Amino acid sequence: MNPLELISAAPWKRVAFTTYALSLSFFEAVLLDALLRSGGRNALILSDPEDDPALAHRD
Fold first, then answer.
1. pLDDT at residue number 45
2. The total number of structural domains that make up the chain
3. Is the residue at 12 inside a domain?
4. 27 lies in some domain
5. What's the domain of life for this entry (predicted)?
6. Exposure string for 26-55, b = 16+ CB within 10 A, e = fewer
7. 59 in a domain, yes or no?
8. Which range marks the domain in which residue 14 is found?
9. Are 36 and 7 in contact (CB under 8 A)?
10. N or C: which end of the chain has fewer CB within 10 A?
11. pTM listed for this prediction
12. Which residues contact 55 (CB under 8 A, 6 or more apart)?
C-alpha cells in the first residue's frame, strides 16, 4: 500500500511519518495535502538529521 492509499483509507486525525530522506516540499504538496483533505490536522515527522546537513548537529 502506498502512502496516499493509506492516508485515504481512514479519517486520520493524527499521523506520524518516519523517513531517512526528508523532502518537505514533497510532504507538503502530496502527503499533507491529502491528509488535510481527509480531515487530518496533526502530523509528526521523524527524520534522520544526518540526511540533511542543515539539520545535523554541529560540533
1. 92
2. 1
3. yes
4. yes
5. Bacteria
6. ebeeebbebbeeeebeebeeebeeeeeeee
7. no
8. 3-48
9. no
10. C
11. 0.67
12. 22, 47, 49
pLDDT tens series, the chain, 59 aa: 787 888 888 888 888 988 888 888 988 998 888 888 888 889 999 988 776 656 555 55
DSSP track, 1-59: --HHHHHHTS--SEEEEEESS--HHHIIIIIIHHHHHTT--EEEEEE-GGG-TTTS---
pLDDT on residue 53: 59
For the stretch 38-43, contacts whose Cβ atoms lie closer than 8 Å and that sit 24 or more positions apart, written own/partner, are: 38/7, 38/8, 38/11, 38/12, 39/11, 39/12, 39/13, 40/7, 40/11, 40/12, 40/13, 40/14, 40/15, 41/13, 41/14, 42/13, 42/14, 42/15, 43/14, 43/15, 43/16, 43/17
Report which residue type is found at 34: A
